[in-house]
């Protein structure tokens, strides 16, 4: 793809758990410098208007581990709808590239399955791919994911809360260090401090637990790229490779193009310019892993 081609391309970004459209800002600026347009989606229940537990910012954070999430009734279909709304708004571009990170892979995949004519390419940035197993939680529970960090981050009972809840404002330095080591280990300390304060508390349970059924004739016909994160501690390489393998087995006639980035689960925080370059390269012909 030439620079001229990039000028007719738009990247549609779907964030992962506890993040929102803001996470992509530096990457979008780097893409703009390369000539590409982009737009970032806020999934329902995310962004700066995301609801948080009533005691979250109060002294002692009362009921943080027990108060039911305001997002408990949110569905996977509603999340996919928000992606589809944005995809429809940018279809005037010649090439539409849907980019999903982490837990955003479920809603992005469902949106592509429902309207494959709106997507010219999908890029999974260390994102869940529900082609081999329909739920993100199926891969979290896989033996290949045993090395993943962050198991001490969720609070309370997710089934009772209706959400996977974390505490970015935790006063416990060990908790905050686990959050850093899981998602941001290669992000400068001062930048991590700002990033974690912008995280929301609740990932709607539906995003990880609702099954997404993908078909070869719809989702499977879209060219797709997987950007592996080499030192990912939230979703280890073994889990990323398992999803790639199972997706390729489900749609053998249209396998992933696979490329590898250095670093953590959050390259948009640690090295956004490199991520932008990889995204630009991802829409060029494949050269393999």
UniProtKB/TrEMBL annotation:
One of its GO terms (molecular function) is trans-permethrin hydrolase activity. Keywords: Hydrolase. Residues 11-278 form the AB hydrolase-1 domain. InterPro entries: AB_hydrolase_1, AB_hydrolase_fold, Sec-Metab_Biosynth_Hydrolase. This is Pyrethroid hydrolase. It comes from Streptomyces rimosus subsp. rimosus. Pfam families: Abhydrolase_6. It comes from the Bacteria. It is an enzyme of class 3 (hydrolase). Transmembrane segments: none annotated. The lineage of its organism: Bacteria, Bacillati, Actinomycetota, Actinomycetes, Kitasatosporales. Its EC number is 3.1.1.88. The gene is pytH1.
């Amino acid at each position: 793809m030439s620079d001229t081609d990039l000028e007719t391309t738009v990247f549609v970004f779907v964030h992962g758990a506890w993040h929102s459209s803001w996470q992509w800002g530096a990457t979008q600026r780097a893409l703009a410098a390369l000539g590409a347009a982009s737009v970032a989606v806020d999934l329902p229940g995310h962004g700066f208007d995301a609801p948080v537990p009533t005691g979250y910012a109060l002294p002692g954070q009362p009921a943080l581990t027990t108060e039911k999430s305001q997002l408990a009734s949110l569905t996977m279909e509603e999340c996919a709808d928000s992606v589809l709304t944005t995809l429809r708004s940018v279809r005037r571009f010649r090439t539409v590239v849907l980019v999903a990170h982490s837990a955003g892979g479920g809603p992005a995949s469902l949106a592509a399955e429902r309207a494959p004519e709106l997507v010219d390419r999908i890029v999974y940035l260390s994102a869940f791919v529900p082609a081999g197993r329909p739920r993100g939680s199926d891969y979290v529970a896989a033996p290949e994911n045993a090395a993943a960090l962050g198991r001490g981050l969720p609070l309370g009972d997710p089934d009772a809360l209706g959400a996977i809840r974390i505490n970015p404002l935790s006063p416990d330095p060990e908790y905050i260090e686990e959050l850093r080591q899981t998602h941001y280990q290669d992000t400068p300390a001062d930048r991590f401090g700002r990033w974690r304060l912008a995280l929301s508390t609740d990932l709607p349970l539906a995003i990880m637990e609702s099954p997404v059924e993908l078909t070869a004739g719809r989702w499977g016909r879209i060219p797709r790229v997987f950007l592996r994160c080499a030192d990912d501690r939230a979703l280890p390489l073994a889990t990323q490779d398992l999803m790639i393998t199972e997706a390729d087995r489900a749609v053998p006639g249209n396998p992933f193009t696979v490329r590898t980035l250095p670093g953590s689960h959050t390259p948009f925080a640690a090295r956004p310019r490199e991520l932008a370059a990889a995204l630009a390269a991802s829409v060029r012909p494949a050269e393999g892993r």
